Amino acid sequence: MRKSLMRLTLRQIQVFRAVCDNRSYSRAAEDMALTQPAVSLQIRQLEELVGQPLFEYVGKKLYLTDAAEALKRASTDIFQRLESLDMQLTDLQGSLQGQLTLAVESSAKYFVPHLFAAFKQQQPDINLHLTVVNRAQVIKRMADNRDDLVIMSLVPPDMALEFLPFLNYPIVAVAPPGHPLGKATALNLRDLEPYPLLVREAGSGTRKACEEYFQQKRVHFPQKYEISSLEAVREGVVAGLGLALLPRHSVTQELANGRLLELPVEELPLYRSWCVVHARGKRLSPVAQAFLEYIRSERTQISALGQTFSGYCPTAH
Fold this sequence. Notes:
By secondary structure, the chain is α/β, with parallel strands linked by helices. The chain has helices at 10-22, 25-32, 36-50, 66-92, 112-122, 135-143, 205-217, 230-238, 252-257, 286-297, 299-307, and strands at 55-58, 61-64, 98-105, 126-133, 149-152, 161-175, 197-199, 224-226, 243-247, 261-262, 270-279.
């Protein structure tokens, strides 16, 4: 190892990360409660130790050099190790403390807060940082090692991942009150084909699951409206724009108050499993390990939580 790198300070790395995050020396100075000349000095000293420039301007925009990208990745690992050390030290004192960083596929965002609340009853000193994204973004975040754990369905088979299925969730067909299919007592998926179907954006796990199921059942919807959030799809159905296939727990209130109808489609519900996932070989923090162990050991409680939403949500195996 270069001797110069041994002279790096955590303060320099903190200033460096602030510049990376803000793409601006002045905004980084505001975040760090420093003057802009002080930030510039820290970066110059850091560049001398690294031996390469870290930032460059193209026009008026600040860009990271290859050296900066490498340093940013290393700094992420450094601070994750320090956070893990802090958790281990508090664990040795008899209480587990720290923050759990979760990325959650949007289909699970209504359930995960209940799951974490149940976990927090056992570990009251753990905090949560929750990011809700679609399936494609979850995969990107895993590749970048941005989170302790992720919760998703349809785990990609081409990545080296460890995953634990913990709850099956139902996807159902919904329609607005007064829809021509609303009075039917039994339907097939093909009965839905003549009507517009509201779908999530490309990259959505729910959309991928439904499209694969449609192919399997040889069902085709010629009229599709793409809408980029689950809530907007739900409201689009309420407004009468079309039908949709959505996780039942995401429309529980609307089904209960009559704003939506669940159609009695014989091939539905379509069940998919939520899984807690991390990269194979990833060093889990004590907090992440505790959350994973909670999911592994509390299947009965998790299944009961799933049933608080409408319908039966069986535990995954």
